[in-house]
Design brief:
Number of helices: 2
Number of strands: 6
Number of domains: 1
Radius of gyration: 21 Å
Helix content: 25-40%
Largest sheet: 4 strands, antiparallel
Shape: elongated
Strand content: 15-25%
């Protein structure tokens, strides 16, 4: 009798364990994306000035921080944006750099000179600079746990970090390589 009960209950226990494992993997991926955005933003804000060549190292660092979670290339994107405020309190995108083969677009805006869409209508002080780092990746939850994670198919995970520069203004990016 116990064997019959076990045979009836065992598949549900296995499914529950698999769904729990999938949920754990999904949450770990989300935490890696959050940590990557924060760490890259902290690294960028410690520069006194930025050169085009600096971004290769920053994107490589993003992938290193994320580990096996793709945040650059075809299945992930890292976007670093400089947002400035002029003396008339008008916020604009000063510059934006995207990882190679980026497949996601910034949700703050994509065109230099455009007005950024910042969360909670965030306003920079006059003459201020804001560094926005967005990290995107794709996640494909298991079919049976997909309803808990936004539906079946591939889900996009996004995280961002907003920091003001610590040392320099970072309102512009200098062309070329760092001397």
């Amino acid at each position: 009798m116990a064997a019959v009960e076990f045979a009836l209950v065992a598949p549900f226990i296995v499914l529950l364990m698999l769904a729990g494992t999938d949920l754990t993997i999904f949450m770990r991926t989300k935490m890696r994306v959050d940590e990557t955005a924060t760490e890259v933003a902290l690294a960028v804000t410690q520069y006194q000035n930025l050169y085009d060549s600096d971004f290769t190292g920053l994107f490589n660092a993003a992938q290193t921080i994320a580990g096996t979670t793709p945040v650059t290339g075809l299945f992930g994107t890292t976007i670093i944006t400089g947002i400035v405020t002029d003396n008339n309190d008008r916020q604009t995108i000063a510059w934006q750099k995207r990882s190679a083969s980026a497949t996601f677009n910034s949700l703050f805006g994509t065109s230099p000179g455009a007005v950024p869409v910042l969360p909670n209508n965030y306003l920079l002080p006059s003459g201020g600079v804001l560094i926005a780092v967005e990290v995107f990746t794709s996640a494909s939850p298991w079919v049976l746990s997909a309803s808990l994670m936004g539906g079946a198919g591939t889900t996009s995970l996004r995280s961002y970090a907003l920091y003001q520069p610590r040392l320099g203004s970072l309102a512009t990016v200098t062309a070329g390589t760092r001397p």
